[in-house]
Structures are given as C-alpha cells and as structure tokens.
From TrEMBL:
Name of the featured protein: Interferon-induced GTP-binding protein Mx
UniProt signal peptide: none
Originating organism: Oryzias melastigma
Subcellular location: Cytoplasm
All copies of domain Dynamin-type G, residue ranges: 30-303
A Gene Ontology molecular function term of the record: GTPase activity
Keywords annotated in UniProt: Cytoplasm, GTP-binding, Nucleotide-binding
Pfam families in the record: Dynamin_M, Dynamin_N
Annotated InterPro entries: Dynamin, Dynamin_GTPase, Dynamin_GTPase_CS, Dynamin_N, Dynamin_stalk, G_DYNAMIN_dom, P-loop_NTPase
C-alpha cells in the first residue's frame, strides 16, 4: 500500500485536501462532494474489503451487521507518525487512540442510532483515520441488500435498505463499488442492477470480486472473463481481491499477514495468476486504483462544483446587498449611521400603521394580510359562543394582529 511514488503523492494530496477542506467548511450541506460507496448483498465481503483497505477492524460477520451508513475518511500520514482516529455521529464526537477500539465504538454508535437489534438507520456515522498505512480515500460502507426479513426485523427491511443505498449511489459525485463474491452468478446480483439503473453507462461503477478461494471449481475461467470486462461491461472495469475468511479471523491472522497470503494465493493460482500479473488483483492494487479513480473523479467534478459555488455566492451576495452596508468604523459616523437606522425604522412603523407598503420583507401589504386574519377571527367568533377570554388570547396569537396593535399604539405616541 505504500508503493505509491512521490510524484503520485504530489498529485493525489492537493485534490483530497481540497475536498476535505470543502467538507470541513460545511459545503456538503449545499453541495454533494465526491465519494466512494460500497454496495453489495449481505455477506458479500463489503466490510472485509474496507477493513483490508483501511487496516482497521470493522464490525462484520454473518447476517446484517452494517446497520448505518459508515463514512470512513482515511488520510495517509508520514512514515513514523502516530495512528489517529475520531468517530462522530449525531452531535457526538470522540477521539480514539487505539485501532482495536474502533469496532466496539462503531457497534455502540449503531446501537445508539438504529436501536439494539436488527433495525437500520439513515444517519451517518463518520470515522476518521490517519495513519502511515492507509491510502488517501473516503469510503462509505452501506448495509447489505437483504432479500428476506429475519425474525425481529421490519417486513420491508429490503426496501428500506435499497432506498438508503439509492440515496447514496444516485449522486453523480459518488463512485459505486459493487462487491460480488466469486461464487455467485454476477448477472443476478441486485447491487449491480441497482448501480446500472443509476449509471447505465457504468461510468462511475467499479466491480470488485471477492472470495476467489471459494470459487466453484470449473467456473474459474468465467471469473477471469468477468474481471477482464468481457461479460458485464463497466467503464471502470473490475478488480479481484481475497480477504480474510472466518477461519483466518478465528486464527487471528493479521491484516499484514493476510496481504502476504493474498499475494501468494494469486501468484500460485492456476487460473488467477494472469489477473495478478496484469494488475487486476490484490488489495494494494485496488487501493492504488481507487485513489487514482477518486482523483480523476474529483478533477472531473471540480468545474461543476465551481459553478455551483459561484451560483450560491451570487445568491448570498444578492441577499447581503438587500441588507445595505454595515456600520462604519469611525465612532462619529457610527452615531450618524445608528440615527439613520432608527429614523428609517420609525418611518417604516408609521408607513405600516397607514397601511403603506414597506420596501423590504415579503408581506408587502399589511391590509390584505389583516383582512385575512380578521376573516379568520370572524369565523372563530361566530363558532365559539361567548367565551371572550379564549377569543382574545387566540387573537393575540396571530402575529399580524399583534403587530397591528403595537403599531397603532406606537403611531398614537408619535403623533
Ligand atoms: P458484508 O456483509 O458484505 O460486509 O460481508 P463481511 O465483510 O462481513 O464478510 C462476510 C463473511 O465472508 C465474513 O465471515 C468474512 O470473513 C468472509 N469473507 C470475506 N471475504 C472473504 C474472502 O475473500 N474469502 C473467504 N474465504 N471469506 C471471505
Ligand atoms: Mg458489512
């Protein structure tokens, strides 16, 4: 994973930093920023792939484990610098200083947001990791597509998950990573279908084949054809990786050891060694490809992003202009400024009491809004019998009536 050369680092860094600084400015509230989302059926190996890429143990296993979208922001640190982690969700934030606590913290966060059990939630958990061993990438792990609800799950869990996935992959700025195990028929996978629906040309969809060690004997050539993009074509193509299986996890095989084993597996494989030599296999190669794809994608999205920011800026400027200039710095001028403002305000008050239109604000004509309010009041009076106290308080709840009364009083005072 550390094989990327200097020049490449120079190219990658500024892009990722730019996006991160836009994110930290809160731009995401208004604009969608480039990201990579991982989708696939339950237990297809999504979390395993993320784990191998990030070097951080994530909650995984059988059944529905990922129950909230998880945003994994990885930042490469210089060799020798310390690992750093931070988890944030809702309005909570916690710094982590040990990679081994991450899994537990995510589980706790999921329980907090989606409830203990098997429900899912739309809300995002954000996990930031900086270490010399991770690539510069931001990934989103999503709940796996469930075909049938198990006991204790809502009946429509499948639809709920699909809706959630769609929310992420519909965005033009998202690259979809479709995870498919080698031992299932790729043409029937729901995840690939969903990705194709939102991206028919396959311009921002990358296929990842997992579990090559579990491939059905006799179908290896078929897998090679898929990875060579000869079966279901995707512009971004396919990669194949081998992650830790349940047995290796039980045996506590480390992630570094797993990467060694993966390399040996592909090199020695009778069919898949060609995929290794042409650069389509292993997690480190995937990391490299993903980083490049993301940078390419960011570069492509920047003109659109710039356009959107400029438009937003124009709107904000227009709004700002409406408020006029701010107070001057000179104290004497400030006094004049304040007097002007107070005079303007008084003039507005007098205009309102006469029913004249104000220059600002949306409720232009006080008479027409009052007429409506009095109409409501009349109906209320007619319907409510003789309880005057109630009528009076309801009437005072109406903002225009209150404003009107205040202005009448004020105008009497100023005359
Ligand atoms: P997710 O539900 O898609 O996130 O899937 P997980 O990452 O939780 O993986 C499901 C199971 O498949 C786990 O028990 C993993 O250990 C296992 N698994 C993942 N990748 C591989 C692989 O390449 N080979 C083998 N044998 N097992 C794998
Ligand atoms: Mg998972």
């Amino acid at each position: 994973m550390n094989s990327l050369n200097e020049q490449y680092e120079e190219k990658v860094r500024p892009c990722i930093d730019l996006i991160d600084s836009l994110r930290s400015l809160g731009v995401e509230k208004d604009l969608a920023l480039p990201a990579i989302a991982v989708i696939g059926d339950q237990s297809s190996g999504k979390s395993s792939v993320l784990e191998a890429l990030s070097g951080v143990a994530l909650p995984r296993g059988s059944g529905i484990v990922t129950r909230c979208p998880l945003e994994l922001k990885m930042k490469r640190k210089k060799e020798g610098e310390d690992w750093y982690g931070k988890i944030s969700y809702q309005d909570r934030e916690e710094e982590l200083d040990d990679p081994t606590t991450v899994e537990k913290k995510i589980r706790e966060a999921q329980d907090d947001m989606a409830g203990v059990g098997l429900g899912i939630s739309d809300e995002l958990i954000s996990l930031e990791i900086a270490s010399p061993d991770v690539p510069d990438l931001t990934l989103i792990d999503l709940p796996g597509i469930a075909r049938v609800a198990v006991k204790g799950q809502p009946e429509n869990i499948g639809d709920q998950i699909k809706r959630l996935i769609q929310k992420f992959i519909t965005k033009q700025e998202t690259i979809s990573l479709v995870v498919v195990p080698c031992n299932v028929d790729i043409a029937t996978t729901e995840a690939l279908k969903m990705a194709q629906q939102v991206d028919p040309e396959g311009e921002r969809t990358l296929g990842i084949l997992t579990k090559p060690d579990l491939v059905d004997k006799g179908t290896e050539e078929n897998v090679v054809e898929i990875v060579h993009n000869e079966v279901i074509q995707l512009k971004k193509g396919y990669m194949i990786v081998k992650c830790r299986g349940q047995k290796e996890i039980t045996e506590k095989v480390s992630l570094t050891e797993a990467i060694e084993r993966e390399k040996a597996f592909f090199q020695d494989h009778a069919y898949f060694h060609t995929l290794y030599s042409d650069g389509h296999a292993t997690v480190p190669k995937l990391a490299e490809k993903l980083t490049l794809e993301l940078v390419h994608h960011i570069e492509k999205s920047l003109p659109r992003l710039e356009e959107q920011i400029e438009e937003k800026l124009k709107q904000t400027q227009t709004e700002l202009d409406r408020y006029g200039s701010g107070p001057p710095t000179d104290p004497v001028e400030r006094q004049v400024f304040l007097i002007d403002k107070v005079t303007e305000f008084c003039q507005d008050v007098v205009s309102v009491t006469k029913g004249e239109e104000l220059k600002c604000g949306e409720k232009l004509n006080v008479f027409s809004s009052l007429r409506k309010e009095f109409g409501k009041w009349k109906t209320l009076l007619e319907n409510s019998g003789e309880n005057c106290e109630h009528i009076w308080s309801t009437c005072l709840e109406s903002e225009p009536v209150r404003v009107f009364l205040v202005f009448v009083l004020l105008s009497q005072k100023t005359q």
